[in-house]
Fold this sequence. Notes:
Blueprint: H1 15-21, H2 25-32, H3 44-50, H4 55-63, H5 78-110, H6 121-150, H7 156-179, H8 191-218
Amino acid sequence: MSYVETIEPLRHRNVGEIAANLAGATDVFRRFGIDFCCHGNVPLEEAAQARAVDFEALQDALLALDGGEELPALPEDTAELIDHILSRYHEVHRRQVPELITLSRRVEQVHAEKNGVPAGLADMLQHALGELEVHMRKEELILFPAMRRQGSGPLDGPIAQMRDDHVDHGELLQSIAELTGDFTVPEGACATWRALYVGAAQFRDDLIDHIHIENNILFPRFESGAATR
């Protein structure tokens, strides 16, 4: 039986569950503007209504995926999944955001008088880096070691805090997207400006995927009433 053929109608399943179990769903959600990472606990139909999205079109796009792709290969073992998060996301964020700050300050200074300059983006990215660093250190020093020791069982308190942090991260990403016109480079922009927006869009996508993996795949293994692997 395929994922969409299970008993619960697709419209009543949470967005995060769909993202975690239906290959290609995250691309569909991005296309329709559905938040599958920070607010993945919302039923699909409700999420569509909140975004004023045509639910039937969204559902058809998801149904067209079923069986057509494979989910990205992620480690099943919890310790290996944590290692993947650390190497693919924590280490990457620590490299990419400082470079984006440098590029942004250059663009803001050199093109201060031009229309569309993302004034304040560097400070916004600096704030994002500080928030991310605190969050990642809490995971690295407290939550992830507890998960490795415990193997399974509830860790509701620290996970709730991490989920709250993720909501804040999502709001920061939204602010960055609004300031940059959804990373749309003005006509005639220099190579530095183009590199900044390409890198910022990649950071946005990476952080969304990072939050999705934690919220919808890793964390449920350690929350009360959730099945663990």
